[in-house]
Amino acid sequence: xxxxxxxxxxxxxxxxxxxxxxxxxxxxxxxxxxxxxxxxxxxxxxxxxxxxxxxxxxxxxxxxxxxxxxxxxxxxxxxxxxxxxxxxxxxxxxxxxxxxxxxx
Length: 104
Known about the structure:
Layout: E1 2-7, H1 14-28, E2 32-37, H2 42-52, E3 60-61, E4 71-75, E5 89-92
Parallel strand pairs: 1-2, 1-4, 2-3, 4-5
């Protein structure tokens, strides 16, 4: 399955840490995974991941709108609800970190 994980990617933020680790986990399961950073350049993201995880398997990092995918997983603050340009399915991860979950 072709999967794009897009959004935050800086390892010093909770969203970025989760996105990078999610992309790495999906990659290790045999999926064709691309990480698309929205908060830093592709080069900066690649260098940070290589430094933090020297044994990583060379995760693909690029601008997401340049590739087709089956699924796009997105996590960033503030949330972006726009649909992808391709026909991929969109999964938005939106954790609630500010007090109790709203009732409605």
